[in-house]
Write a structure and sequence with these properties.
Largest sheet: 7 strands, mixed
Number of strands: 16
Helix content: 40-55%
Shape: rod-shaped
């Protein structure tokens, strides 16, 4: 959003100051206007008072009537604010204003601003008349009684003078002067309009000057705000735009300096963040490389050890002779036991490697939990008796047929029971089984309880880490490489199961396995490959896909030798040949050409399962694979349903 669409500080300052100054000028002009008009009214009132006294003095003379008439005519012609001048031959003035009221300041303000007209009365006295003469004159011929002096002057009528002077001053009447205030106001406005207009223009110019002066700092603030807006709208801004400053205001200079410093700090922080992100990416790439190297090393070492172990096992079988003495038999038993232990360890490493690669699939089958517990009791009872341990089972359910991966469940329980017997020197080992039924599923909870050495609380989370040993010394009492619990932990996660541990050092341990299972439910695709012979070519291990093919009803022959594969294809009728993901594309192309060359009466379906992480590289070999005779190629799958869907489509 633009800063111009918002209320800005410069606008607020400018508008506020202009409004304050304009209001002050308006009030001052209004007060000055009113005050000057009142002052003008006061001067006019004094002027009228002087005129009234002058006319009263002229009218008191016996021959002053003509003079007064000329004076009134001149005054009315020259002063439009004078409405009328009238002589009343009466003792009581009409609409009189006394002198104290005329001089009142409050009356001046009221009269000047609110009244339309105002009358002033001035007494006319003469020493040439007495009261009786005036009365006779008034009864025989009225003299200036209720007659306008202005009318007498216009009609050129002269009043006869009084013949006999009075001995003393006698009240003859009153002169009434009526002032037109409204006309006075308009006359004053017309006379003073030009000066007031000039004053207003000067006031407006003054306001504009003040606004222009206030605009100096606001221009710098607006320039700074625009630079801030540019910085906000451009996150990738490398260089801060130049901040134009026309005036050296200290506050704005400080704000500008602080903004520049903060921008430089932000760019430094972004640079450090980018360096850290690059370093983290390098570590991530290095970790991936190490994972690949570790996986390759595990594949290589397990393959080599497996080959050597097979040779040792074969040699031991050749040495097993009924004519051996006891000492020789014991020696062979020790060697055979060691080879079995090494074989189990290698198998665990292979399983862990498969799980980490995502090559382990879940194979559902029907099993009886009671029968599985009975098999476990039968398998481990000799070892428990040998250590004089009580091996007890507590089953809290009747016989059920459940569906799950029975092999993996049995392996999890095997490992836990084996560890319980191994780390328990006296006491008992208990298998506690309980089923909890829900609407469409069953939760099977198995507890392996022992009275063994126990586990310190600080090591409970670490026992599931691969190759972790609580006692890592060379003189430790119990054998093992610390991989069994990590394998069954990840296997349980694949099954959706959980493993909880409660243990107290020196008292014993309790492992609780909780598995969600389903009731008996046959798979609709379990006979998809019924009666089909499949050859699976690999290097190291057959992998989980063989188990999935067998679950679909196929007969699978696993081969890991090139000559064995070609010899088998030459002598047997094979419907399908699958190449494992560990076989390189070049080797697959070579073997496919050899197989196609020796085919005579039938054609096998050739399928290549390439690694998922090499999907982007398979395009380089796509043409050669098809030319060599590969019918289908797809990334390795780990789920039976996906495998069944692909094979169903390919076999049409």
């Amino acid at each position: 959003m633009s800063i111009n669409s918002l209320r800005t500080i410069p606008k607020i300052i400018r508008h506020s100051v202009i409004q304050a100054i304009s209001f002050a000028i308006l009030i001052a002009a209004l007060l000055a206007f009113v005050y000057t008009f009142v002052y003008y009214y006061q001067q006019k009132r004094l002027h009228v008072q002087q005129l009234g006294e002058l006319l009263a003095s002229s009218a008191s003379n016996p021959d002053g009537a003509n003079l007064v008439a000329r004076q009134v005519s001149l005054l009315l012609d020259n002063d439009p604010s004078l409405q009328s001048i009238v002589f009343y031959s009466t003792d009581n003035p009409v609409n009189s204003l006394y002198q104290n009221e005329i001089s009142s300041i409050s009356n001046d303000w009221y009269n000047a601003l609110l009244t339309h007209t105002i009358s002033f009365n001035y007494p006319v006295t003469s020493r040439y008349f007495d009261g009786d003469s005036i009365q006779r004159a008034s009864s025989s011929q009225p003299l200036l009684n209720n007659s306008s002096l202005a009318s007498s002057a216009n009609n050129k009528e002269t009043q006869p003078p009084l013949s006999q002077p009075a001995a003393r001053n006698t009240l003859v009447g009153h002169i009434n002067i009526t002032l037109d205030i409204a006309s006075l106001r308009w006359h004053w406005i017309r006379v003073n309009s030009l000066p007031w207009l000039i004053t207003m223009v000067l006031g407006i110019l003054f306001v504009r000057f003040i606004a222009r002066k206030l605009n100096w700092p606001t221009q710098d603030i607006i320039a700074l705000a625009k630079v801030c807006e540019v910085a906000v709208d451009n996150p990738q801004l490398e260089q801060l735009p130049t901040i134009q400053q026309r005036f050296d205001f200290q506050e704005i200079i400080r704000i500008k300096r602080a903004f520049i410093i903060l921008f430089e700090r932000l760019k430094a922080a972004q640079h450090d963040y980018q360096v850290l992100a690059d370093f983290e990416q390098q570590l991530h790439n290095k970790d991936l490389s190490l994972d690949i190297q570790r996986s390759n090393f595990q594949n290589m070492i397990t393959h080599e050890l497996k080959t050597s172990l097979n040779a040792i096992t074969g040699g031991l079988q050749l040495l097993d002779d009924p004519y051996l003495n006891e000492e020789q038999r014991d020696t062979l038993a020790i060697i055979y036991k060691g080879s079995q232990h090494l074989e189990r360890t290698l198998e665990q490493i292979i399983q862990l490697n498969r799980i980490e690669k995502g090559q382990t699939i879940i194979s559902l089958s029907e099993f009886n939990p009671l029968q599985m517990i009975a098999d476990l009791l039968e398998e481990f009872e000799p070892a428990a008796k040998q250590k004089q341990l009580e091996f007890i089972s507590r089953v809290h359910h009747v016989e059920y047929m459940l569906e799950g991966d029975a092999n993996k469940i049995q392996q999890i329980l095997n490992t836990l029971i084996d560890n319980a017997i191994k780390f328990t020197h006296s006491g008992q080992v208990i298998i506690d089984s309980q089923l909890t039924h829900f609407n469409e599923s069953v939760r099977w909870q198995v507890k392996i309880i022992d009275t063994g050495i126990g586990i310190d609380a600080c090591y409970i989370e670490d026992i599931f880490v691969p190759f972790f040993q609580i006692d890592s010394s060379e003189t430790r009492m119990h054998e093992g490489v610390g991989i069994g619990l990590s394998v069954i932990k990840q296997m349980a996660q694949l099954l959706g199961a959980t493993i909880e541990v409660n243990s107290e050092l020196g008292v014993g341990s309790q492992f609780i396995v909780t598995m969600p299972l389903r009731y008996k439910n046959h798979m609709p695709q379990q006979n998809l490959l019924q009666g089909i012979d499949i050859v699976y070519y690999h290097y190291d291990e057959a992998g989980p896909i063989v188990e999935g093919l067998q679950r679909l009803g196929a007969s699978v022959d696993s081969l890991n030798n090139e000559q064995s594969l070609l010899h088998y294809m030459e002598n047997e009728k094979v419907v399908m040949v699958m190449f494992a993901d560990e076989v390189l594309p070049e080797q697959v192309i070579y073997l496919a050409k050899r197989i196609r060359d020796q085919e005579r009466t039938s054609r096998a379906l050739l399928i290549y399962w390439y690694p998922a992480h090499k999907a982007k590289d398979i395009d380089r070999f796509e043409y050669e694979l098809k030319t060599a005779g590969i019918d289908y190629y797809h990334s390795m799958v780990n789920e039976v349903k996906v495998l069944a869907s692909l094979l169903d489509k390919w076999l049409i």
